[in-house]
From TrEMBL:
Subunit structure: Interacts with OPRM1. Interacts with palmitoyltransferase ZDHHC17/HIP14; the interaction leads to palmitoylation of GPM6A.
Name of the protein: Neuronal membrane glycoprotein M6-a
GO cellular component: axonal growth cone; dendritic spine; filopodium; neuronal cell body; plasma membrane
Ranges that cross the membrane: 14-44
InterPro entries recorded: Myelin_PLP
The keyword GTP-binding is assigned to this record: no
Signal peptide: none
UniProt-listed PANTHER family: MYELIN PROTEOLIPID, NEURONAL MEMBRANE GLYCOPROTEIN M6-A
Length: 81
């Protein structure tokens, strides 16, 4: 009877160990997934910031070119009159 109880305790211990190992594996997978999502979001935000700066510079340059073009057009019209 003592041997049978000892066997049941070892069996229960093994099953608890397997459950704990599976839980730890799931936690590791969740942490890796979290880090991947975090790095992807960081890259997206960083790229969006760069893109916003690029769009600002591009619009300023286009505005300057438009101003230069309209100024030259006015100068040409004034030269003919």
């Amino acid at each position: 009877i003592i041997c049978f109880c000892l066997f049941l305790q070892l069996d229960l211990t093994f099953h608890l160990f397997v459950c704990a190992l599976a839980g730890a594996g799931a936690a590791v997978i969740a942490m890796v997934h979290y880090l991947m999502v975090l790095s992807a979001n960081w890259a997206y935000v960083k790229d969006a910031c760069r893109m916003q700066k690029y769009e600002d510079i591009k619009s300023k340059e286009e505005q300057e070119l438009h101003d230069i073009h309209s100024t030259r057009s006015k100068e040409r019209l004034n030269a003919y009159t």
